[in-house]
Amino acid sequence: MTKGHDLAQGWRLDRIPGKRVRRLADDRGLALPLWIVCDGEHHADAHLRMSLTEAEQLHAELCLALGDDGPRQTLACRQD
Known about the structure:
By secondary structure, the chain is an alpha+beta fold.
């Protein structure tokens, strides 16, 4: 990321506060609710849909990215 980059500018995908990840009706995957935002202005709601395998891979990558600095007490999978 460029030094001084303003994250409020340009297009973004943000999690929708208060909306949780949910299982799809066919129980084949998950949907992550997102806001589509440009320059701080909401344009639409969307869902990132992923298979259970993709969700497991994302989960593993997030745990690795959090490393030792992550909140171990909040994720049962990160308990020693």
